[in-house]
Write a structure and sequence with these properties.
- The complex is a heterodimer of chains A (about 270) and B (about 270).
- By secondary structure, chain A is an all-alpha fold.
- Chain A contains 10 helices and no strands.
- Chain A starts with 9 loop residues before the first helix and ends with a helix.
- By secondary structure, chain B is mainly alpha-helical.
- Chain B is built from 10 helices and no strands.
- The radius of gyration of chain B is 25 Å and the shape is globular.
- The termini of chain B are far apart.
- The chains are: A mainly alpha (about 270), B mainly alpha (about 270).
- Chains A and B meet through helix 1, helix 2, helix 3, helix 4 and helix 5 of A and helix 1, helix 2, helix 3, helix 4 and helix 5 of B.
């Protein structure tokens, strides 16, 4: 028996043309968005082409890097690592209560975890450089405001990731602890903490990777670390020194990323 | 068999644990030794109070000023920088992604070199890129656009490459069997599979770029960051308050829109 050929039905055809219409509207919307942002930012390809020779000059001046400057770069680079470490530590400690309070399977009260999550979202919308600029105004120049800014910023990240991991844990041990009549602190310590700890440590390491990158630029607002040196050297048009700083930053970032990645692989 | 239920930890792992503690302790001693902890200004308390007051009584008049430089224009500028930067990187990263994907480009050296390029671009801080672009095209939003566009290639290229590596190669082979040329193979077998992933990653990067665009102004690369840093430097805390509020509202709205689109796509 021959199967009858099926043609697209009328409704299918109209849904196809509807879809095509939708694609056209999306494309139109994107083009408009693109044109508007070009106009708003006053971008022009001509500027870019005119600036191209500048860029070429700049790149030529950056090579070869000024290796003699390396000795000056090392101490602020170490400062940067210190800031990242301490900032991450502060963030990691502050994140623990926030993560537990916003996990819906630890504290089942909506009135509790919704506001806490809202605060976390709020914190994560503020870029760390702005936090650093505000802390510089409070504490004065130096690495201390940078450490606090990184601490608050990474608290937001670690707390969010940790509470999401907490909500995914096996409920068995939780019920077992409830069944034996554990109080809340015992309940958390023996059923939640052992399950979440590997994730938590991995998120802390991840935050450390982000913080090393962030710490490298906090100096631009006066919050310590290598960032101040970008300002100084670029201001004096010493591009060979700039490239030394860039190479040094890249090496440190890559080294910390590598160590942290290896540790995280071992953990999970 | 008394201890069957309580497996005693072998001694070696306890040693390992202690050595980890000691290493951590030494790291912290080193880290704390380099930080001047007595650096508090006496006025810190006063200033914090002024800041908190200012943040809770934002300068609403700044939202719209007829003669120029106001919050709305700053935010629109920031948004435009983020949009344009994302557009630029979403287009530029495609060739890099194909270069770095190990199932479509031929040879380990080729893919590894592509991956290295991308991670190099990723580790280069966007603010430093912006500083350099300011030297090239002068201060303003355009330098910010270029910095974001170039920096985002690193991350988008990596994510796109991973997306390409995960495709089903069946359709490619089928097209090859029908005698399609490489461009037809790419267009009909690869592109339809990767488009949803590409769009979703691009939107995700757009969310990140919006946050970055709001600080680019601190170094003079356009957007809301410039009035913000001026307000902070001139201790105009109620203006800082309204600008921060504006940034938070804008970022939250865009995040909501973007994540709802992403949910519908993937």
């Amino acid at each position: 028996m021959r199967k009858a050929l099926t043609y697209p039905s009328h409704t299918e055809l109209s849904s196809m043309s509807m879809r095509r219409k939708k694609h056209v509207w999306t494309a139109l919307f994107l083009i408009l968005l693109f044109a508007w942002s070009l106009w708003q930012t006053e971008s022009s390809l001509l500027d870019f082409i005119n600036g191209f020779s500048n860029m070429f000059d700049l790149l030529i001046q950056m090579v070869p890097p000024n290796w003699a400057y390396f000795d000056n770069v090392v101490p602020p680079m170490l400062d940067t690592i210190r800031m990242a470490l301490l900032g991450t530590t502060i963030g990691a400690i502050l994140a623990i209560p926030f993560a537990l309070l916003s996990a819906s399977n630890v504290f089942k009260n909506k009135a509790l975890y919704y506001p806490i999550r809202f605060i976390l979202n709020l914190i994560r919308t503020i870029p760390e450089l702005l936090l650093a600029a505000i802390f510089v105004a409070i504490l004065g120049l130096g690495p201390l405001p940078g450490i606090f800014a990184l601490g608050i910023f990474s608290m937001g990240i670690i707390a969010k990731l940790t509470y999401e991991a907490t909500e995914g844990i096996d409920p068995g041990p939780l019920e077992a602890m409830t069944a034996v009549g554990a109080n809340k602190i015992q309940w958390i310590a023996y059923s939640v903490v052992p399950q979440v700890t590997p994730y938590y440590i991995s998120f802390v390491l991840y935050a450390l990777e982000i913080n090393v990158r962030a710490a490298a630029i906090l100096g631009l607002v006066g919050a310590g670390g290598i960032g101040e040196y970008y300002d100084k050297t670029l201001g004096f048009l010493e591009y060979d020194k700039v490239s030394t700083i860039i190479i040094c930053t890249l090496l440190v970032v890559l080294a910390i990323d590598y160590v942290s990645m290896k540790l995280r692989e071992k953990l999970l | 068999m008394k201890n069957a239920a309580y497996p005693i930890k072998p001694k070696r792992s306890r040693w390992k644990l202690w050595s980890i503690y000691i290493v951590l302790f030494l790291i912290y001693v080193w880290a704390l030794s380099g930080v001047p902890l007595e650096g508090f200004k006496e006025t810190a308390g006063q200033i914090s109070k002024a800041i908190i007051n200012g943040l809770f009584s934002p300068d609403w008049d700044y939202v719209y000023l007829p003669e120029g430089e106001d919050l709305l224009r700053g935010l629109l500028d920031t948004l435009a920088i983020a949009i344009l930067g994302t557009f630029v990187s979403a287009f530029l990263c495609v060739p890099f992604a194909f270069w770095a994907a190990n199932n479509l480009s031929k040879g380990v050296i080729l893919t590894q070199s592509g991956k290295f390029m991308l991670s190099f671009v990723r580790t280069f801080p966007e603010l430093v890129m912006a500083l350099i672009f300011i030297k090239v095209v002068g201060p303003g939003s355009f330098a910010g656009v270029l910095a974001l566009g170039l920096h985002s290639i690193g991350m988008l290229g990596k994510l796109f490459a991973e997306e390409i590596e995960n495709i089903d190669l069946g359709p490619t082979e089928a097209l090859k069997a029908t005698g399609a040329n490489p461009i037809q193979m790419l267009w009909f077998a690869v592109v339809p599979q990767v488009i949803p992933g590409f769009i979703s990653y691009t939107l995700y990067r757009f969310e990140i770029n919006l946050r970055s665009a709001s600080v680019l102004g601190i170094i003079g690369a356009g957007g809301i960051g410039t009035p913000l840093i001026f307000a902070i430097q001139s201790r105009n805390w109620s203006r800082v308050g309204i600008i921060l509020l504006g940034i938070i509202v804008m970022v939250t709205i865009i995040d909501m829109i973007s994540s709802s689109i992403r949910k519908r796509i993937v």
